[in-house]
Amino acid sequence: MNKENFEPLIIAFCCQYCSYSAADLAGSMRLQYPPNVRIIRTPCTGRLEVNFFMRAFEKGADGILVAGCLEGGCHFIEGNLLARERVKYTRAFLSESGIEPERIRMIN
Fold it and tell me: Which residues contact 20 (CB under 8 A, 6 or more apart)?
């Protein structure tokens, strides 16, 4: 594939209370996001396990974005803190495996 035409497949795991609501509102406002971004609504980012991230990479994802509630604002109290630790673990695992750890990122 030509590098100029490369469109990475990004999987965005979004908390249903914060980031998914924002994405839904953007859709209601007819704002667009790139077609290579696939949004997956989750009840809470704290429900995400490392194997979910690895499965997404196995199925062809080039990058993963985990979007949760702001720190201190999680509807499930500490879900976003759990997710942050799991993303951190996944980044270390990817690095040890020779894969760029930058391919997964969490935002709050």
Answer: 14, 39, 41, 42
Distance CA 90, CA 63 (A): 12
Q: Are 40 and 29 in contact (CB under 8 A)?
A: no
Q: Collapse the DSSP code of 36 into the 3-class scheme (helix H, G, I; strand E, B; otherwise coil) and give the result.
A: coil
Neighbours of 66 (CB within 10 A): 26
- Residue 10: φ, ψ to 5°: -110, 125
Taking every pair of Cα atoms in the chain, the longest distance, rounded to a whole number of angstroms, is 45
C-beta separation of 11 from 41 below 8 A: no
- Could you read off the pLDDT of 1-36 as tens digits, one per residue? 567 788 999 999 999 988 877 776 666 777 777 889
pTM over 0.90: no
